[in-house]
Amino acid sequence: MKLKALKDELGEPPCWSDYLSLPFTQNVITETLRMGNIITGVMRKAMKDVEIKGYLIPKGWCVFTYFRSVHLDQNNYDWPYHFNPWRWQDKDMSSCNFTPFGGGQRLCPGLDLARLEASIFLHHFVTQFRSMRGEFGGK
After folding, report:
1. What's a GO biological-process term for it (predicted)?
2. What are the start-end ranges of the E strands in 32-131?
């Protein structure tokens, strides 16, 4: 609300540096992505025999990585079914336990655009939404 008041006073729309100055908004977006990732998972085909943590994946076999099981695993997150954006404060985001946009060479190129769009939506929702309760006879 402080940012909105300042921008209204200056008569300026929000800009990129404003977007970057809202770390808690990013925590809310990150937690939303953790709990309700749009991408269910990814399928990969082993191009050669691969051993991961003692498991052999033979050449030609496909592996499906189910992101939601990783994002909701209590071994990775305390209270995984509780919406808690504060868990992301001062946390390293490069963990392979958080992959809503893929990772490595296959990191989604739209990652920053998606976060920007979510930030803009949240900004308008929080600063302009007014309850319609009572305006139509509701109690």
Report:
1. brassinosteroid biosynthetic process
2. 41-45, 50-52, 55-57, 62-66
**C-alpha to C-alpha distance for 4 and 18, rounded to whole angstroms:** 10
- Predicted confidence (pLDDT) per residue in 72-101, tens digit: 999 999 999 999 999 999 887 666 788 888
Using DSSP bridges, classify how beta strands 50-52 and 55-57 pair: parallel, antiparallel or unpaired.
antiparallel
In DSSP terms, 9 is beta-bridged to none
User: Could you tell me the pTM of the whole model?
Assistant: 0.75
Domain ranges of the chain: 2-126
Taking alpha carbons only, the member of 67, 69, 59 closest to residue 43 is 67
Band of the pLDDT at 37, cuts 50, 70, 90? Answer: confident
CATH topology of domain 2-126: Cytochrome p450 (1.10.630)
Rounded CA-CA distance 29/32 in Å is 5
Residue 47 DSSP label: S
